[in-house]
Write a structure and sequence with these properties.
alpha/beta, 46% helix, binds adenosine-5'-diphosphate
Length: 899
């Protein structure tokens, strides 16, 4: 989605002699933010003027009015009440707008002191954009909200990503072709692109596939020298070297982020962790169309329901949910790192009572990451402090809970859990902060600091004194009412409002005698309303002043206390974020253990072989759906081996529609994701040699919005697979070549299967309706046939959902049509046409005679090194024993014989 770009003002927005001071202030603010909608604070409203008012009135359905004139024209105006701002903001942001918030920076009474005409000081305090939100009310608690930036320099690409609401930063350098996969893995809500690349057609698919709003940003902001300076400023360091050796494109992308944060946060520096760097080898590459087809974290309609993530998520904190989502979106490639995660899940799976206590404790913890970020940005309130207190208390609780396990020499926790526990051990500074908040902050503090009432009595003596004075005076006022009634004989009531402060009120009739009283009456008239009259006395006004002074003083002390805590939180932000991350990590692992126990998932063996071996595998999402309907799920085996040792590397999967082909294909791809995400897998056993790239092409719909037919889409995706898949990749292809004429389609499917086997040599599952492809098994060394079993029973078709060796004998299309309710007449006609066609096929032109099959030997136009070359490359003669050398020679001879 591209942003509705700036709506360039149609009106000339320069002030002139007729411009009022407030309007001049508006115009200055607006000039600084021409591409944002400006919310201009005026008392209890944010007002919008000119085109902003027109745009927002249409986008929000609010009333468009006018106020004053500018250069002879009416000024359009619209407004939203301050207390309802979040809802309106959310709607504008969702529609792709940016909103600049211009606040009153002083109390109107302060301005008045400068003269009756003085204008309240105002300035833009922040620009709200999709990628920079921090408010809980605008964020999805269980999903990360990220801002990404893309840069390309010297033929290399980089993506920088910041999650402002948790202070996390990532930097990934990659090949330009991989930009789409990298961006999609982060699912950013907003993507910054240098304006020069904004309309680059090669990048369009990658940018669109990210799912975020794309914003163009001046190319100059990504120039390396300036970018480096800006990033250093953001982190308050004098060199970036301490964070790692960044490629130029990475510095440029990070620089774009830094520049954008400078403007949108109006100079406030967020608390950010150093950039985590991950090269392109560190994570399983999954391109956007594969993500979509496998429904990894969203279903095809973009909802969470029905996705892999939704099916396995048993986390109990929002931080844990985000941590799990990240694992599943970006599975790892390093067997050692993956196994560390698996160790943690396995340990927690075994420690049942501890896991239960852990999850119970986590349930009451709060979102420390987001609270810390808000406070560091000067945007948080007392409630965020209480979130931090509860997070620190949880940390203490968990440390205690694990103490016995840590001390146990036999069942001690594995490395990942030990690392999390280390972050949970509060140091002196964090303990001090916790102590302070525990003493000083009330149990359920207000949302806003200016509401007061959140500092505990006894925490600051001067606050207690101010409060006592205020409360005592209130008591004296209550006495005063009784005395006034006794003295005057009028039924007075003491009341209070913002304008008059405290006053005595009586009905007009009762007050009549006092209205006639002379100047020395103690009751001084203040106001006459329709039925009431209001008075004050000298004593009452003195008390009123005292109360309001004491109230102000109390509030000032409270806000100062808040500010001290806030500053302390900002200073300790990195440590607090580490605590938050450790809590999230424990929750994510415990959640995976919980799910594994629930569904009977097992630990996969993950190594750097080229093996893919699954016994009794199940599709985590389809299984749950099938079982919910009271049906059993049929587990299936799948055995592929990338090096051709011990089996085939490509399986042709045939079977009728509805037999379970797509489910089988996706199931195996999802098992790869789960295993590399460090999760257990729903299978009896699984061994996986880590996969570098995962591809899934499963029946895409037309993408007519982008002007591509199904067939075109299919070919674009097939091309991407054939050019990018490696022997370490895992490919599932469903129904290649269906959107065109039969022979065309068959030819493409055939050639694709051959290339995947011979050139890419990836582990591949290839589902097809072209039963002719089953012949590949005889022609190529490492191809096997699988079919999804079905049988006819009493004239009905029964699907067994079982993957069995060998090709399907027929496709049962006509039977499926009958099952689907196609009228009997049409079904029987189809049957007789089919009989006829099949007779012709056996008697007449056999497929065997087609040039396609005659020339089935792969065209000698190698796309990469030949199998022999590749095998030779892998041999180091100095490392071989005589016997191994002889074996290698036989292997090479075998390879060179292949068609
Ligand atoms: P195909 O791709 O062959 O047309 P699908 O994979 O779409 O078939 O499967 C059709 C339906 O069959 C699924 O929606 C699911 O309900 C059911 N199904 C698939 N595989 C299994 C299985 N292994 N066990 C039980 N039911 C299954």
């Amino acid at each position: 989605m591209n942003a509705p770009l700036s709506h360039p003002p149609k009106v000339d927005l320069t002030p002139d002699a007729g411009t009022t001071p407030v309007m001049a202030q508006f115009l200055t603010a607006k000039a600084g933010h021409p591409d944002s909608i400006l919310f201009f604070r005026m008392g209890d409203f944010y007002e919008l003027f000119f085109d902003d008012a027109v745009t927002a009135a249409a986008a929000l359905g609010i009333t468009l009015t006018k106020r004053g004139k500018h250069k002879g024209e009416d000024i359009p105006m619209a407004g939203v009440p301050v207390h309802a701002m979040d809802g309106y903001l959310a709607r504008l942001i969702r529609q792709g707008f940016k909103v600049a918030v211009c606040e009153q920076l002083e109390d109107p009474s302060e301005a008045k002191k400068r003269g009756s005409k003085a204008v309240v000081h105002r300035d833009v305090v922040r620009v709200v954009t999709p990628g920079t939100l921090t408010e809980d009310s605008l964020l999805d608690a269980r999903g990360a909200n990220r801002l990404a930036a893309v840069a390309i320099r010297k033929g290399r690409a980089a993506v920088a990503v910041v999650e402002l609401s948790a202070g996390a930063v990532d930097s990934v350098a990659c090949d330009i072709a991989d930009l789409g996969s990298v961006l999609a893995a982060f699912r950013p809500s907003e993507v910054l692109v240098p304006d020069r690349l904004f309309s680059d057609s090669d990048l369009k698919a990658a940018l669109d596939g990210s799912g975020g709003v794309v914003q163009a940003i001046p190319q100059a902001l990504g120039e390396p020298a300036g970018a480096r300076d800006r990033v250093q400023r953001l982190y308050g360091v004098s060199a970036l070297d301490g964070f790692g050796a960044f490629e130029e494109a990475e510095v440029s992308a990070l620089g774009l982020i830094a520049a954008y944060l400078e403007t949108t946060q109006a100079g406030k520096i967020p608390a950010l962790a150093p950039p985590r760097r991950s090269g392109d080898v560190g994570h399983l590459a999954i391109d956007p169309s594969t993500r979509l087809s496998l429904e990894i974290d969203r279903n095809q309609r973009g909802e969470r329901d029905g996705s892999l993530l939704h099916a396995i998520d048993r986390t109990v904190t929002s931080g844990g949910a985000r941590s799990l989502a990240e694992r599943v979106a970006r599975p790892l490639c390093d067997p050692a790192a993956i196994n560390q995660g698996l160790d943690a899940v396995e340990w927690l799976l075994e420690q049942r009572p501890l896991r239960r206590d852990l999850r119970d404790a986590l349930r009451s913890s709060a979102d420390v990451a987001r609270a810390t970020s808000r406070l560091a940005l000067g945007r948080g309130g007392p409630r965020d402090l209480s979130a931090i207190r509860s997070g620190l208390l949880t940390a203490e609780l968990l440390s205690g809970m694990f103490a016995a396990a840590v001390a146990d020499p036999i069942a001690a926790p594995p490395a990942r859990i030990m690392a999390a526990l280390a972050s949970l051990a509060l140091d002196a500074e964090l303990s001090q902060l916790l102590g302070d908040l525990r003493d000083g902050l009330v149990d359920e503090p207000s949302h806003l600091a200016r509401d007061g009432g959140y500092v505990n009595p006894g925490h600051r003596p001067e606050l207690d004194a101010a409060r006592a004075l205020r409360d005592d005076s209130r008591r004296v006022i209550a006495d005063l009412e009784a005395r006034a009634v006794a003295e005057s004989g009028v039924a007075f009531k003491v009341r209070h409002n913002a304008v008059l402060g405290y006053f005595l009120e009586a009905s007009a009739k009762a007050a009549e005698p006092l209205m006639r009283a002379g100047p020395d009456s103690p009751f001084i008239h203040r106001q006459t309303l329709a039925n009431q009259v209001r008075f004050t006395t000298v004593e009452l006004s003195e008390l009123d002043a005292k109360i309001s002074q004491a109230g102000h003083r109390a509030l000032a002390i409270e806000t100062e206390t808040f500010e001290n805590w806030r500053r302390e939180v900002a200073r300790l932000a990195p440590k607090l974020q580490a605590v938050a991350e450790a809590i999230a990590e424990l929750d994510a692992h415990a959640g995976l253990a919980e799910w594994a126990e629930e569904v009977g998932a097992v630990r996969p063996v993950v190594d750097d072989s080229l093996c893919f071996f699954v016994e009794g595998g199940r599709h985590p999402v389809v299984e749950a759906a099938v079982k919910a309907q009271g049906n059993p799920y049929t587990p299936n085996d799948c055995c592929l081996s990338g090096d051709g040792q011990g089996g085939s590397r490509l399986s042709i999967v045939t079977g009728p529609n509805m037999a379970g082909k797509s489910t089988f294909l996706r199931q195996n791809a999802l098992l790869v994701i789960l295993a590399q995400a460090g999760a257990f897998v729903p299978a009896r056993t699984m061994r996986l040699g880590v996969v570098d790239r995962l591809f899934s092409r499963v029946g895409a719909g037309d993408d007519l919005a982008r002007g591509r037919s199904t067939f075109m889409m299919e070919m674009v995706e097939t091309a991407a697979i054939l050019t990018q898949a490696t022997p370490r990749s895992f490919v599932v292809l469903d129904e290649i070549g269906r959107g065109t004429a039969t022979y065309d389609g068959l030819a493409i499917a055939w050639a694709t299967a051959e290339a995947l086997h011979e050139t890419n040599r990836s582990r591949t599952l290839f589902a097809t309706h072209y039963h002719e492809l089953a012949r590949l098994e005889e022609r190529l060394d490492f191809v096997s046939n699988l079919s999804m079993a079905a049988k006819e029973w009493n004239g009905d078709l029964v699907f067994l959902h079982e993957a069995v060796k060998g090709a399907a004998d027929r496709s049962y299309g006509v039977q499926v049509a009958r099952l689907a309710g196609v009228p009997a007449k049409v079904v029987s006609r189809a049957k007789s046409v089919l009989d006829k066609l099949e007779k012709e096929k056996t008697s007449g032109s056999s497929l065997e005679e087609l040039p396609l099959f005659a020339a089935a030997a792969p065209d000698p136009e190698p796309v990469g090194p030949s199998p022999v070359d590749a095998a030779l490359d892998e041999i180091n003669p100095d490392d071989l024993s005589p016997r191994e050398a002889l074996e290698a020679l036989y292997r090479l001879k075998g390879l060179s014989k292949k068609p």
